[in-house]
Design a protein that fits this description.
Belongs to the phosphoenolpyruvate carboxykinase [GTP] family. Pathway: Carbohydrate biosynthesis; gluconeogenesis. Monomer. The protein is an alpha+beta fold. 22% of the residues lie in helices and 25% in strands. Strand 1 and strand 2 form a beta hairpin. The N terminus is likely disordered.
């Protein structure tokens, strides 16, 4: 491409469209390093035009209006500024089998099992194989489309814990969603103009124009060619063929976990698949907790819990990802690098998570949920719609109770601004982060694992995290109820060799005085009664009873306080869990 195409904006049918040609030099606000990245991406992908995203509300409104005209989203008149998207049925979840880490040495990325078995702790691709795969996919992949340039911040702009990224994409759906999930636009460009480093993120749906085959649900994707690749040595992400959020919103799992975990190793901090919440007891004492559960195992419900115990209060800092670093006083502090919630819809209701329901009542994009005839949304777990209101499933077909299929896809999602959460923590955007008193690991274990227990020490806690197992969920392409190893709830998200990751966690106890290390616990809300298959623990707001014990253990004066020693760790002593 002899010159870089950049958006010249004009009105067209009420929607702002990017047309025309300008040279890169005519946009002085684009920092040189960003301009170079954009130029190289445009030369490779050959878009018809390039639009630099500013992140203004008007721009977002224009993007959504354009998506509506294209048939990719539908406005939901029952709510304020809410939208429904239906994807191609082949593009509904993270694709772990097509997600790779590219390094010179295989051992840098994954342990190498004996006998040539495939590692379950990541997928490595050689540099030569990746270059070949890239050449099969990216050249000309954006022909006829707009390349959007998204400058974004993972964490509050200016925080010492924050990292920056620039994503180029040919998906306007991604632009709208990144505007919710990250701090995006001109303020980030200003920071990059000061010389801040950034992760280079390149994404394409892989359907250049003109189309050679019709789209399903007006949703562009290329399932046969999906590849989500990470190059940690060069801080680069390249994703092709999928529009689903976990594969296309590159600030999420790709950057915030896979690339960030490698950055964290190099810089001496932790990037983890964890919620962050603040919990306050009736006496007004507050502690912060980080908790690691696999996807679709209740992180959002716990982060937004309305405690069943009188006088207790939970406030949400984040529901999915935590970046944690020791401060100068030796206290582990955490930020939520995201700006929104990308939560699983089915099972979310006013009974299980009333604060989540309040959060998603406006300014939300719903994907692959059911639709009601009165302009709303529906999914399994919600009350039946009122009489006379009919349902359309995530395929766009009429649906009735008793149908052989589900109305909403099991991994259907909502994408909503975190600031709308009624219990968002006052310190959720604190530049220095919140102080972490406890780290909790947990997963879906139908048998054999108790409700809650505490590690003996940091090393034992690392062992507990490393030995986590959980029932597979709909958040990835795995099927069935197989119990999978999921160490630290990071199995799909490790950015480097798990052995080095373990060593990095163990090294934390040598970085600061042991008295400043958070205490480590394990919980299991999902144990079942073998007689009838029902859950033994009610879960949801009742989980506050386990958090109360954890809270007390964090402030204990004696090791045996409210606990009894067992071979697996400290268990609550009889009566220590308030079940009244």
């Amino acid at each position: 491409m002899s010159c870089l195409l950049l958006g010249v904006i004009r009105r067209h049918g009420g929607v702002r469209a990017s047309v025309g040609v300008r040279s890169l030099a005519s946009i002085p606000s684009l920092p040189p390093a960003v301009a170079d990245f954009v130029r190289r991406a445009a030369d490779e992908c050959k878009p018809a035009r390039v639009h630099v995203v500013t992140g203004t509300p008007q721009e977002t409104a224009n993007i959504l209006a354009g998506l509506e005209i294209e048939g990719m989203v539908k406005k939901l008149p029952k709510y304020e500024n809410c939208w429904l998207a239906r994807t191609d049925p082949k593009d509904v979840a993270r694709v772990e089998s097509k997600t790779v880490i590219v390094t010179k040495s295989q051992r840098d990325t994954v342990p190498i099992p004996a006998g040539g078995a495939k590692s379950q702790l990541g997928s490595w691709m050689s540099e030569s194989d990746w270059q070949a795969a890239r050449q099969e996919r990216f050249p000309g992949c954006m022909a006829g489309r707009t390349m959007y340039v998204i400058p974004f911040s993972m964490g509050p702009v200016g925080s010492p814990l924050t990292k920056y990224g620039v994503q180029v994409t040919d998906s306007a759906y991604v632009v709208a969603s990144m505007g919710t999930m990250t701090r995006m636009g001109t303020p980030v460009l200003n920071k990059l103009s000061e010389g801040a480093e950034f992760v280079r993120c390149q994404h394409s749906v892989g359907r250049p124009l003109p189309l050679k085959a019709p789209l399903v649900n007006s949703w562009p994707c290329n399932p046969e060619k999906v590849l989500i690749s990470h190059l940690p040595d060069t801080r680069q992400i390249m994703s092709f063929g999928s529009g689903y959020g976990g594969n296309s919103l590159l600030g999420k799992k790709c950057f915030a976990l896979r690339i960030a975990s490698r950055i964290a190793k190099d810089e001496g901090w932790l990037a983890e698949h964890m919620l962050i919440l603040g919990i306050t007891n009736p006496q007004g004492v507050k502690r912060y907790v980080a908790a690691a559960f696999p996807s679709a195992c209740g992180k959002t419900n716990l982060a937004m819990m309305k405690p069943a115990l009188p006088g207790w209060k939970v406030e949400c800092v984040g529901d999915d990802i935590a970046w944690m670093k020791f401060d100068s006083q030796g206290k582990l502090r955490a930020i939520n690098p995201e700006n929104g919630f990308f939560g699983v819809a089915p099972g979310t209701s006013n009974k299980t998570n009333p604060y989540a329901m309040a959060t998603i009542a406006k300014n939300t994009v719903f994907t692959n949920v059911g639709e009601t005839s009165d302009g709303g949304v529906w999914w399994e777990g919600l009350d039946p719609p009122p009489a006379g209101v009919t349902l359309t499933d995530w395929h766009g077909k009429t649906w009735q109770k008793g149908s052989s299929t589900q109305c909403a896809h099991p991994n259907s999602r909502f994408c909503a601004p975190a600031a709308q959460c009624p219990i968002i923590d006052p310190q959720w955007e604190s530049a220095e982060g919140v102080p972490i008193d406890a780290i909790i690991f947990g997963g879906r274990r139908p048998e054999g694992v108790p409700l809650v227990y505490e590690s003996f020490n940091w090393q034992h806690g690392v062992f507990i995290g490393a030995s986590m197992r959980s029932e597979a969920t709909a958040a990835a392409e795995h099927q069935g109820k197989v119990i999978m190893h999921d160490p630290f709830a990071m199995r799909p998200f490790f950015g480097y060799n798990f052995g080095d990751y373990l060593a990095h966690w163990l090294s934390m106890q040598t970085r600061k005085a042991p008295t400043h290390l958070p205490k480590i616990f394990h919980v299991n809300w999902f144990r079942k009664n073998p007689a009838n298959g029902g859950f033994l623990w009610p879960g949801f707001d009742e989980n506050a009873r386990a958090l109360e014990w954890i809270f007390k253990r964090c402030g204990r004066e004696r090791e045996e306080e409210a606990a009894k020693r067992s071979i697996i760790g400290w268990l609550p002593e009889d009566g220590a869990i308030d079940t009244k």
